[in-house]
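ok trying this again, last paste got cut off
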Amino acid sequence: MKRLVVPYGKPCRLSDPGKDFAPEELEKLLQKGLEELNANDLICIFQSYLPAGEYNECAYYLPRAVEYVIEDLPDAFSVLYNLLHWMHENADRLAQDHLFEPLQERFIDIFRTDLQSFELDASPHPYPLHEDRVTTLLEVWNELPRYDSLGDRLLAECLLPPSSYSQAAWIAYLLKNYFAGFSYAQESQIITGWSQDPLLQQKICDIVLENALDNDALCDYWAKCLARCGLL
């Protein structure tokens, strides 16, 4: 994927339109090269409703913010959350600069790629790899009007009808979070629909359990997950 190109050079100052930052904090941020920026720096720059700079000052940092999310570096989901809000707030300016669609396409590609596999991390209480990135995209895309429920539309495109293990596994995982009361899942129309579809629920149970038969850890994970959904 080619690096995003923006029509703005490095700013000589960050204007702090919301008067939310100490001058020395902004000066320290300005002294950093793009590759030196960490999650906290990028969150400051693209902070929802209180960004560190005006549009053209912040836009210079877009390529690094996108790369940070793609590389899934520490706290990338927090960078992503703020960046998506900043994009929504500046959608018209981004469109004028022919940046909104390229940005959107990069995040759509990330979402589709993440849903193509379902692997658990190695923690004592395992989570799917990239779970926080998937759920952040889903939450913000469904919440903010400019995105027009893109999260639900992509879930339908990527996961329905479920025929593979990864499709069934993501549906089961999202249903678990729906029944656990996670707001992003309960506010999703498509996940709400799955919660009322016993035929779909039975199909995903059959798929995930069949694929877990030869793996004791995976069997244990799915037994607990599906029980929390009331499906076992």
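PB: full thing came through this time. The CA atoms of residues 8 and 59 lie 7 Å apart.
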